[in-house]
Batch of 2 targets.
Target 1
Amino acid sequence: MSAVLDNPIHDEHEHHGPPKGIARWLFTTNHKDIGSMYLWFSFAMFLIGGCMALTIRAELFQPGLQLVEPEFFNQMTTMHGLIMVFGAVMPAFVGLANWLIPMMVGAPDMALPRMNNWSFWILPFAFGLLLSTLFMEGGGPNFGWTFYAPLSTTYAPDTVTYFIFGVHMMGISSIMGAINVVATILNMRAPGMTLMKMPLFVWTWLITAFLLIAVMPVLAGVVTMMLMDVHFGTSFFDAAGGGDPVLFQHVFWFFGHPEVYIMILPAFGVVSQIIPTFSRKPLFGYHSMVYAVASIAILSFIVWAHHMFTVGMPLFGELFFMYATMLIAVPTGVKVFNWVTTMFRGSLTFEAPMLFSIAFVILFTIGGFSGLMLAIAPSDFQYHDTYFVVAHFHYVLVPGAIFGIFAAVYYWLPKWCGNMYSETLAKWHFWMSFVGMNLAFFPMHFLGLAGMPRRIPDYALQFADFNSISSVGAFTFGATQLLFLYLVIQAIRSGKPATDQVWEGAEGLEWTIPSPAPYHTFSTPPEIK
Amino acid sequence: MRSRLGLGALSLLLSAFYAADVSAEYGVNMTRGVTDISHSVYDLHMTIFWICVAIGVVVFGVMFYSIFKHRKSKGAVASNFHDNTTVEILWTIVPAIILIVMAIPATTVLIDMYDTSDADVDIKITGYQWKWRYEYLGQDVNFFSSLSTPKDEIYNAAQKNENYLLEVDNALVVPINKKIRFLVTANDVIHSWWVPDFAVKRDAIPGFINESWTRINEPGIYRGQCTELCGKDHGFMPVVVRAVEQAEYDDWIIQKQEQAKAAAALAALTFTLEEQMQRGEEVYLKTCAACHQPNGAGIPPAFPALKGSDIALNDIQKHIEVVVDGIAGSAMQAYGDQLSDVDIAAVVTYERNAWGNDTGENISAADVVDYRNK
Ligand SMILES: [Cu+2]
């Protein structure tokens, strides 16, 4: 194989190396450069959103108001959610897509490189705008990341307008990114790479991209309706003018529910690459994995109102959304069973990517269990808008999406930078994150069941102990991420050189090219067996 | 919780088991509550919980078995299987069946919850930023219920009492063993009225009326909170319900009706500036201080200062108008139907004379009536 590849790569490398300096990053159309920028950007946002989370946890460490006033607390919960969802998780997955999809399907680059550059460069402006509202008169958005009207329209601070523009920009960026992914996967696969031969990461991203294209315009629509209500005298969401505040929630969650799968499907893909490698055994049930992801994606369009069981929908509506939601457990279960069976009778080793992947399977499943509980409408009346829900979605997002991203970074970093990371430090990172995260979020189940509502800056005395534990966990988890930053930089600068194969059991086109991956790869399509 | 954390996720699951057992004492599980519905909800919750635990034990059991037995370091050699149609069909169908079994009781309970017919008592609940209003339909009883925890406790200047943040000035009083229907709505933003012991949670949505009901089996005091983010003081609008025997309830209703008459009679009297200031301060601290702050400085720009404000120093008519009719499209509510004419006159007088706003003017209930009649 390497004989086939060497020549073209070398030619390309000599003639078009990357330009030097800032211009390289501003004008780059190279999928690897853009992927790296996405990943660094997302990590910066992760730290900023993390600081906001720590502000929240510091205030909640003890009952009473100590550090911040309720107005600011609400800005923190809102911004933490927005930054983590749109700034940290989504761009990280786009970064991975950029780096990996062309290498996995044997394409020289993304299909639309200039648009790729633009989708990235919109983001710093969108988030700059959003973050700047914190320093404006009246403060930043304070209506929760779900921004329910009329709290976010009639009763919103003036900065809501910047928030709306920020969301529009993020939406444009995501849609362009998604179009690019679809175009690349459908048009740029190397000859012989049939759809059913694609690595699962590529499959999950293809499906995610379709979800994005379907729902980001809905988000754009709902914020535009808000803009009209705020500035142009319409009453989409104002009952006094004939509008309907519940309409907002329907439209929002029509976007919002597929959105949660947008944040998790690529992580499914990552884990489906990693577990077979470190089990030294092919993925169990490749076909059913693909079908499961596709059915989850389709079902995600008909379950949105399970976020709204208490708004007073008619009985039939409640029942429909309850049944549909329970149904999602079936394909999700299939995925979990497949991962576990892949490990079964394998030959397992536990390097950092595998540790994060195993934790992913276990903890995501726990999040799935609480999700199943939340699907039962009558019980949801007790869980809804309490810390039980906070525990649930942090279990699917932190050890789900975020552990998935960590796993991916450890797995492919040697290919990206050509050096190995320090396995010892990575193990520390894993165990500290694992303990910190569980300490932070597990007690939240208890808090919610015992009756603590979410989004409150202060709480009754019986909630004090679990809140303190949770805060300690959150700070542990947060501090540990600085270790991650350190060890990534250490690997890039001075890690041991990696082999081309990197991992003993790894399979796929990306492992056939040299480490570090040359600036241009697969200028001539590889041969697929 | 014990110190089993090192064992990782399995121990977490175990701690959840353990937690479920000691639920009542430590507040780690859902309350069973005091209504038939809340009992059914609790049972559903526990059933689905144990189903999840059982699935978890099997799945994680297999996984940990592999983790311990099939390690490369122990010389495990990977086999190469990657498909098995029978197994795959089985683990699609079995969960589906479990789900159907689960959906049946859930449906029954939900249908029960939705049956709001034949109520004995009807109570309209309205969410305001940040308090609740309770109206007993057909009884002429109607009052506001807001947090009664002192600011000093919140700001850690005083010892916090046992019911910190879960106490109100006027609790909702209801009879036990009667079907009580709640008609839930809101005046400004969306709130949500929740009492865990009844398993009743309903969103209070401006412009819409949601229905819900309960029948309480045991007398007692039941506490809950607003559960939909509703702005600054979302964390400070608790719900307190006192459930009493029918006889006590009847007495209470009569007493409330008499209080209302006495309050109406006040409108005919005239008060000195000092009396007005005293009443006005009470009303102000209770009703207005959350936004305009006790010292009148407000929290600009969201909530304007009244101290030295143009309206509070000059145009009396405008001042009465703002308080009675509110300011459309802002958090400033119309207090005309929340406060009596006497209280409105008192609070306006207070605002025009407190914090160095020394206009010396004394506004009477008659002035408010005049404004309303215009
Ligand atoms: Cu509220």
Note: The pocket of copper (II) ion is lined by residues B 127, 130, 191, 226, 230, 234, 237 (CB under 6 Å).
Target 2
Amino acid sequence: MNPSASRIKVQPATESEGRKDYIRIQDFGFWYGAKKALDAISLDVPERRVVAFIGPSGCGKSTLLRNLNRMNDLVDGIRHEGDIQIAGRSIYDPGIEVISLRRRVGMVFQKSNPFPKSIYDNVVYALRIMGVTDRAVLDEACETSLRKAALWDEVKDRLNDSALGLSGGQMQRLCIARAIANRPEILLMDEPCSALDPIATGKIEELIHELKAQFTIVIVTHSMQQAARVSDRTAFFYLGKLIEYDTTEKIFMNPSQAQTEAYISGRFG
Amino acid sequence: MSENSKQSPDAPTPARFQVSRFTLLADTWMGRLIRFGGVSVVVAVLGMLVFLVCQVLPLFSGAKLESLTPVTFEKTAVGFGEDEYGELPFTCDAAGKLEFRHAYSAAGAAAGVVTKTWSPTLAPGQKVTTIRTYPRDGLVILGLSDGNILEVKVTYKIAFDEKGGRTPQPQIVALPAQQLGKKLLPCLDVWSVKGPNGHMVICRQQEAGHDFLTAARLTEKSGMGGPVVTAGNAFSVASDIPDLERVFVPSTADSVIVVRKDGEVRVYTIEEEEVSFLQSFKPFASLPDSRIASAGLIFGNVSLVVNSFNGVEEVWSIYPQVQSNGQTQRRWGKIHDCEPLAGAGQGIFPAVGNKCYLTVAGGRMQIRNMTNGSLRWDAPAPAAEIQQVVFSRNYDRLAVLSADGVLRRWSIEDHHPEASWNTFFGKIWYEGASAPAYTWQSSSGADEFEAKYSLVPLLYGTIKGTFYALLFAIPIALLAAVYVSQFLRPELKKIIKPTMEVMASLPSVVLGFLAGLWLAPIVDANLLPLICLVAALAPAALTAGFAWSSLPQPIRRKVGPGWEFAYLIPFVVFCGWLAWQAAPMIESTFFSVKDLASGQTISDFREWWRQNSGWSYDSRNSIVVGFVMGFAVIPIVFTIAEDALSNVPDALVSGSLALGASRWQTVWSVVVPTAISGIVSGIMIGFGRAVGETMIVVMATGNTPVMEANPFNGMRTLSANIAVELPEAAVGQTHYRALFLGACCLFALTFIINTFAEILRQRLRERYKVV
Ligand SMILES: Nc1ncnc2c1ncn2[C@@H]1O[C@H](COP(=O)(O)OP(=O)(O)OP(=O)(O)O)[C@@H](O)[C@H]1O
Ligand SMILES: [Mg+2]
């Protein structure tokens, strides 16, 4: 799968430029017990842009992504070095509650994981646990998020049905709607389309385009085309190291590293 | 490829694709075996149910009476008697002539043929003015025209012929006439009673239109030429009773009940030869026709069934009542309203040995049970007026003599006359009780004791025991399950889970033993400190949790996730210790009472409870049972709930956490709802265990079937009841079947609750199922 130049769309810059180092990862190393999963990663994610993480399986993309909202805290025996800052503040700052960090940094998982509740309850879950009880506010948030997730028209008549009755693609969009309902600033997506058919994938990719206006998005993907289609910048990882990080255009058209070149041209991975 | 394409359709399958015969055979046979096992389980359960139902059903069948050949006597017969087997009944006419006839065709004698007649020898001028027969005592008592009475004893000797056939031979002994009443006045009625208090005869005479009763106690000794009867002093029972209609003399010979024509009942008590008026009452005073149509004194001598001319039937009995002067005394009062009769009452004839009676009214005769009001039998009554009715001693035969001289006879099959739906589940006013109640009392030392089989106190006890056990067990088990599955370190979880599973296999006999012999005395001695301790634990834990959450992050982070309990435990232990130490002070401040025995003020919560709650205090009480039974239930509920909670997919937990939910919020709004069907199963299995638990209850409570919500006394549960009483119940008896009915109730209880829970579980599972 050699991505031909014609298929690569270069994203036009959005009107208001945000800060360039909205997420700043500095010399970040990470261990699962004795196993080193990440090695001295440094990269900046600009505000309201889409950054794609690519690389062969096991290279640490998910690990890095999960560190951005500290989901790895749940794992036993982890250790990290270096620092990650969001909007200039370290996420390891003792004054920062993990919970508030996660409210700010939403996440969509590889495998859709709707709660066994109604569609409505799924979408407003984050608001409910924040203590919002006003039905009007919840209704509003539900509709906006579902609309943003391009799911509204499909489910508006059955908001009270179980979310488990949706199709795989719908469920994944529901998870996206759920993640954006409390208006986070950053959205982490770990292979959101890996289980979806091309049509659903297309919808989600469109969605990412739209969401970019408001959110900073980090997406892990195994599909070169997808990375090329949705992202502004792309980071290529290999064996826990960041090999190359540049604009998507540059990475795909003219990678500076041989490994990157080899990977995107499908010679390994 | 080429090799395959060459094959023709019927060529043998290559060996590598063939399934070995053994695999196929094993598959078929295992399938059959499993199906057989499944079917056997279903059959076994159904069989058990069928067995239980078969044991219980006879309780609810009425009496079956089979008519035997009637014997026709002279129309002049006014009373009759019979031998033990009813083979050779006799009648007695107004002149005192006895006539024996065979009831069955036997060797040498056809049925209905007169085999013997006998007439009393009277002094010149003496005439028989009244007779009364006591068939079961073989006694005929004649009142004579000069105030004398004559007792005639009829006994049967059985003669066997060579072929082994038996023929009863009547033996008639007339005792010498006794002067009882006023000389030269005819006896109008005579009664004889033989009871634990001796033998007494009473006669009624009339002088100047006034009835009076005279009684005498008789002592009987065997003399040279037959028994010698000496009469004690004759004494007047009631000298002037206007409109006397009927007299009942209980076999205890300690009272006389007189029914007057206007429906008033007067009761006199007799102590030795002292007679005193006790009470008078008018059962039908509120009816337009207050007369008593017929009355009968039920076996046991304390209840009188009366009926009116418009078909009302009531039972009056003597029981302790609070009098206007504040004292409690035994007086007569109404205890039952019976089902209305088909017409005016025509006679009430009690059975012996149980509380049944035959009531004749409106052309029907019915056998009814006085205590539970059940109708045992209903049949058309003979057209002619009924003279006398006799139930055999074991309530297996019924004989009815009517004015046309026909003695109609039935055999009775009614093994459980005291059983009815009402007996087991209704509130029943037993004789001697001051109010209707649910009572279980299956045996007693007294002979005339009436067993009481209400299952309600046992059901109550079962529910009470279960309630206290679950009250203790469910919160602890579920909270522990949530904590262990969601918060605890995996290393510790690996130790705790198997430990709990081992706990589940503790034999309940051991737990019961510990509860009754070790825990109960400890709880008894330290009741208030323990209550304070328990009351302090929950607030202490909550305070600790709150204090923890308000500690600054850096300090909290020093304690690794899952180790928070290490900080909690010392705090909670300290609070518990404080509560324990404070208990004596609390006891003396709030629970000081005056000791009834010594009159001193003492600080004792138990005494305070006795005096202030109106309930008793028992050292083997529901708290102890609930606690120990909780121990039996906790591991089961814990294990199942913990499994369910642990099986909630991690993806859901991370999903929730990633949305900014705290761990507790995640547990509460995602983990618990997802695991809810498993949690419900756990609770239900725990419930089943608590309901059926036997040994702990048997050993750790006093097993008194009381109905009190009091946490400080015991209870008797259905299962404990079966365990305690089945060994002493005779197979096939009412008691035995009542125990099986208890088992059925237990079965039904668990069945209903489990079905309900299963439906609930299915619903929840449907709702919270995870893809
Ligand atoms: N919970 C964990 N405990 C121990 N090691 C882990 C854990 N999660 C991941 N790893 C290891 O860390 C390395 C990086 O894993 P990671 O999941 O980040 O890879 P990935 O790039 O997302 O791969 P993929 O594309 O297959 O999802 C792998 O070698 C993996 O085995
Ligand atoms: Mg991954």
Note: Chain A has one domain: 5-264.
